[in-house]
Amino acid sequence: MSHSCCCLAVLASSSSGNCAVVTVAGSMRSILLDIGLSPRRTRTAMVACGFDPGAIGAILLTHFDSDHFHGGWRAELARRPVPVLVRTGMEQRALQAGVPAYCLRTIARPTRLGSVATVRAWRTPHDELGSTAWRIDTNTGSLGWATDLGEVRAEVVAGLRGVDLLGMECNYDQQMQLDSGRPMHLVRRIMSASGHLENGDGLSAVAAIEPSQVVILHLSRDCNCPRLLQRLIAERLGAMSTRVRIAHPDQPSGAIPWGRSIAAPVNPAISRLEVAAAEPSDGVLGSGAWAID
């Protein structure tokens, strides 16, 4: 049965593992945003949120740090292939990480997934190879995703502007980071323009993008505080603050509906992504390749 609306569930969001699941109205399949949890834990969390682990149709990866790509997925993807989407420039790193070549798809331009979704990708600054901001557009809504980035550049703000649901990193409080007692080289890396987003910078990006709903991602366990961040959200975002959630580091968020009532026009200048069907599975990945109906 097709999903009746678009939904997001953040399964976990921390340095111990990051993964979210997206469903699209009119499709039986779902999309995973990062796979930083083990396949078994991903399945358990999806079931807890009411999602079918056998209906995963594609995986979108931001980058290949171990909290975004769990090593257990190498064998899972080899046994039960589904498309794994990365932006241009990530191909070699994906192969080195163990993504099977027959699963790998590189996104260099807006790309259709089946008949009801289009994805776009932007490089964001994070360590040497960078991370990826994603936008998913459907006939009933749009979702933006930006995590593990040292700064939010103008092209990402423009690309994600006006999405119905935005996932945005707010990793650390600056003073807590400076007072953390961590090695100074680590503090400098995290606070650099190729590190992670400070709370104020993340919220400034949210205000500029003007989404309808927001999920705050990837809070540092040691250098952030949800209560402190909630106060800052109220101060910085005003009326928008009532539409902001903070993802829990380890517990699934539950299903968050998103979308709009007016269908967006379909961009004709897009490529189409298809992949051969896999065999039926009793594991995490299901019996179909990416084919949003």
Description:
- The chain is an alpha/beta fold.
- The protein has a single domain, classed as Metallo-beta-lactamase, Chain A, CATH 3.60.15.
- It is built from 8 helices and 15 strands.
- An 8-stranded mixed β-sheet has the order 13-12-11-10-9-8-7-15, covered by helices on one side. A 7-stranded mixed β-sheet has the order 6-5-4-3-2-1-14.
- α3 links the parallel β5 and β6.
- The longest helix has 12 residues.
- The protein starts with 5 loop residues before the first strand and ends in a 20-residue tail after the last strand.
- The relative contact order is 0.19.
Q: What's the structural blueprint in terms of helices and strands?
A:
Blueprint: E1 6-14, E2 17-23, E3 30-35, H1 39-48, E4 56-60, H2 73-79, E5 84-87, H3 91-97, E6 104-107, E7 111-113, E8 117-124, E9 131-138, E10 141-146, H4 154-160, E11 165-169, H5 174-178, H6 184-191, H7 199-209, E12 213-217, H8 226-237, E13 244-246, E14 256-258, E15 271-273
Parallel strand pairs: 3-4, 4-5, 5-6, 7-15, 10-11, 11-12, 12-13
Antiparallel strand pairs: 1-2, 1-14, 2-3, 7-8, 8-9, 9-10
Helix pairs in contact: 7-8
